[in-house]
Amino acid sequence: MAGVKSLAKDTAIYGLSSIVGRFLNWCLVPLYTNMFPAAQYGVVTYIYTVVAFALIILTYGMETGFFRFANHDRYDNPDEVYSTSLVSLGVTSTIFFALTLIFLHPISDALNCAGHESYIWLMALAVAVDAYTSIPFAYLRFKKRPMRFATLKLLNIGLNIGLNLFFILLCPWLWNRCPESISWFYDPGYGIGYIFLANLITSALMLVLLLPDIMSVPLVFNGRLLKDMLRYSSPFLILGIAGIMNQTVDKLLLPVLITDKAEAMTELGIYGANYKIAVVMVMFIQAFRYAYEPFIFAQNKEKGTGKLQAYSDAMKYFLIFALFIFLGVMFYLDIIKYFISPAYFSGLRVVPLIMLAELFFGIFFNLSLWYKLTDRTRWGAWFSLLGAVITVTLNIVLVPRWGYMGCAWAALACYGIMMLASYFVGRSVFPINYNIPRLLFYCAVAAVLYVAAMFADFHAEWVNLIFRTVLLILYMGIVCRTEHITIKQLIHIRR
């Protein structure tokens, strides 16, 4: 239980930076949806979708590989693993940016940004920097320095938001009143390009602030170690590409599968804006991931069966809090929806499907420990490829008929099948005694409360909110009673 408490504390710290940071970043969605038409916001969504692919390729599973080999019996020097990883990512990131510059025009044409080549090279440089700094951030997690990690992440988000407000709100205001004060650097026609410029500036600052951590170890490169790391991590590249396909290929396919291109970009903008509402679940999963990977590799060093119980408990508490987040978002959606422009409200129906899809993905990630700890990482690649096939197939079938709703159903089916496949294969390879009846009980409780909240209508929004708040409290009451958790114990865990 001590290990689970440590996991909970680290998740809380990582979660603070992730949740607060993502929430603040989330607040940019109403800015974008009110300042730019849906078609332009569709361009932003499209470019960031490609960026997500590029970031997965440029990190090629080295984060997980770093944690595995920093705790490996064969290599007793974590700093050598860290330095080797830095050199590898530094070289590949530099090559990526150089190739982008060489082929800038054809890449811009392919991404529907002809005439706006600066969008591409700005994001390419930002991605190259972010890929490189992923290892220093992983090193902070390895060294159990969640406070520095959280501080840097919050600073990153804060600067990004500040620059967005500066370029998108303050500069147009100044341009209308005293254009000479900003004409030397500001172009009112650049529009969404300032979103990408703000991203690059924040990424560059993170690199500067991480220099002490980058230079804190001697520069060492071990070719044999890198070969072993790449052999271990290469399936994670396939897993990552397939995984990011599962998350983003719908946004790439939607403009292709809808005949009217103007309508397609509008639908993509609506879908992308409403997808952002589900970011609360994504934030929790990301915070859990930051703490969970160091946790499972450290626990694996322990002797005896206690570690298996710790893994089982981690799954249980993950599901409890994930269901709480799902209910919280759905119960207060009538308030949360105002984070986007009313012009985008037609897409709110995708929110529960995306929230459930992300919950399934979180369970899949939790289950992934069996192939990470047994060095059978190829299974992760197979599961993700299976999900990619399902996603692409269902998008091709459903999007022409249902539009962005087809994207949401495809995501739900993809993650649900991946979750089930990983569970059934994993229990024969690395059996963990998950308390399945208890987990299903919490799912059933959440489902009943959700249905009750959605079907009960008191014809007054404030009464509905009070009723749903009572249901949310009831859920936590059932959890605490079932797990025999008291207020005193909750306070003790916090400490």
Strand and helix map with partners:
Layout lengths: L1 H25 L1 H8 L2 H22 L2 H9 L7 H25 L1 H7 L6 H26 L3 H32 L15 H17 L1 H4 L8 H35 L3 H15 L3 H21 L6 H26 L1 H4 L14 H17 L1 H5 L4 H25 L1 H26 L6 H20 L5 H23 L3 H8 L1
How would you explain this protein's 3D organization?
The relative contact order is 0.12. It is globular, with a radius of gyration of 23 Å. The chain has helices spanning 2-26, 28-35, 38-59, 62-70, 78-102, 104-110, 117-142, 146-177, 193-209, 211-214, 223-257, 261-275, 279-299, 306-331, 333-336, 351-367, 369-373, 378-402, 404-429, 436-455, 461-483, 487-494. The two termini are 14 Å apart. Helix 1 (2-26) runs parallel beside helix 8 (146-177) and helix 4 (62-70) runs antiparallel to helix 5 (78-102). The model is unreliable at 491-495 (pLDDT under 50). 81% of the residues lie in helices and 0% in strands. The chain has 495 residues and is mainly α. It contains 22 helices and no strands.
